[in-house]
Amino acid sequence: MKKLFGTDGIRGVAGKPPLDPATIFATGLCVGRYFAHQSSGSKILIGEDTRESSRWIAETIAAGCVAAGCQVTSAGVISTPGTAFLTKSRGFAAGIMISASHNPYQDNGIKIFSSSGFKLSDATELAIEQDIAAVLHDAAKVAPQRCPLMPDASLSVHYIQFLQHSAGAEWKLPGWKIVVDCANGSASALAGKALAGHGMKLLLTADQPNGVNINLQCGSLHLDGLRSVVLREKADLGIAFDGDADRALFVSSSGRIVDGDGVMLAASRYLRAKGKLANGIVVGTLMSNFGLEQALAREGLQLLRAPVGDRYVLEEMQRTGASLGGEQSGHIIFLDIASSGDGLLTALLLLRILSENNQSLDDLVRDLAVLPQVIRNVKVRQKVPLEELPQVMDKIHHSQEQLGKTGRIVVRYSGTEPLLRVMVEAATEKEVEIHASAIVRAIEESLGVA
């Protein structure tokens, strides 16, 4: 069983295990050895977000790769999907992204992609993790170093050209005012260029990263600020990215927040009309709102639910041959175009849909009747299996029995943070609050509060 790699790579507090210099260097060494074994002189791409720790982590992992005999190229500040795209399109043996996505600046992470642009398989991660453990077992032989990196500016240009080509050049939204929240992250270096043109006026916000303000009261987890700007500026649309720009959420001109469910509904209709929605399937997750399932059913389309996490959405898409999938959080995968969720690509494609349909975002999702839903995050000291918490399991079963077929409950540990997430969906707000609060209390009584 893997202990180092979670659902989205390695993640933790920068400077502390598993993101201490020794483990980072060992990770670079073992990743390098794994891919060098497949091809001598393997080239590895490294990208990073704007956290103050990202550069030293990138340089430390680069030194490990070089020690394994690999060549290293830096893309500098770029998005996670940008790293995935460039890894495949530029012929790198592997790509490494230094980012903790939507987490605060103190955290960071290591995400690894194969030459295909897809995340590593569980088996590959396990093999690398076992090698890392063996290296660290003889810690005296681990001497962390840093390899200075000089970013290749042409790589981000290539990525932006890919985005613009994928979205097409012929559509227009003349006079539209678009507010873009860059989360003081990777999008700060990319969004203004990627979204330029098409007759739109862009108003960039949270686009001045200083190393410690990434995701700080901005970005896709903090939409109140964007909503206020959209309403104040009488803008036509608001777009919010997260720290590494692999997700995008939206705010309509009326102030309605449109999450990944709304985007998938709009995209599924558009792709079906173009004959590009494979098998009439949309892949969501256990968290996808029942309202989306109902709306798709009215269109004769099927929603399949995967476990939470974009890697599981991707696996289900590949298993079923689906071309569209995603999560409420804004990870949307257009598999005919990209190998991972891409916030910038999602934004561009949604803008194109709005243009071609000659509709506002409110019009586009007007018939999406979202059921009341709440997600509560309970911070935990350790991730005790739920089946070992009888009080919690009893409360979940009791609440589900009371809700019957009119509600859903999902309780799961985060794969990237020390959190137990409680999702309750029901016919009324009152039911949602009652059952969510009851389950959270049972968790706190069983596990304590971290």
Explain the overall architecture.
- The structure is a single chain.
- This protein has helices at residues 21-38, 54-67, 80-89, 122-137, 153-167, 191-194, 223-232, 260-273, 290-298, 310-320, 343-357, 361-364, 390-403, 429-447; strands at 10-13, 43-48, 71-77, 94-98, 107-114, 177-181, 201-205, 237-241, 248-252, 257-258, 281-285, 302-306, 324-326, 332-334, 373-379, 408-413, 419-425.
- It is an alpha/beta fold and 450 residues long.
- The protein has four domains: 10-151, Alpha-D-Glucose-1,6-Bisphosphate, Chain A, domain 3 (3-Layer(aba) Sandwich), CATH 3.40.120.10; 165-257, Alpha-D-Glucose-1,6-Bisphosphate, subunit A, domain 3 (Alpha-D-Glucose-1,6-Bisphosphate, Chain A, domain 3, 3-Layer(aba) Sandwich), CATH 3.40.120.10; 258-364, 3-Layer(aba) Sandwich (Alpha-D-Glucose-1,6-Bisphosphate, Chain A, domain 3), CATH 3.40.120.10; 373-447, TATA-Binding Protein.
- It has a five-stranded mixed sheet, sandwiched between helices. Strands 7-6-8-9-10 form a five-stranded mixed sheet. Strands 15-17-16 form a three-stranded antiparallel sheet, with helices on one face.
- Helix 1 crosses helix 2 (54-67) and helix 1 crosses helix 4 (122-137).
- The relative contact order is 0.10.
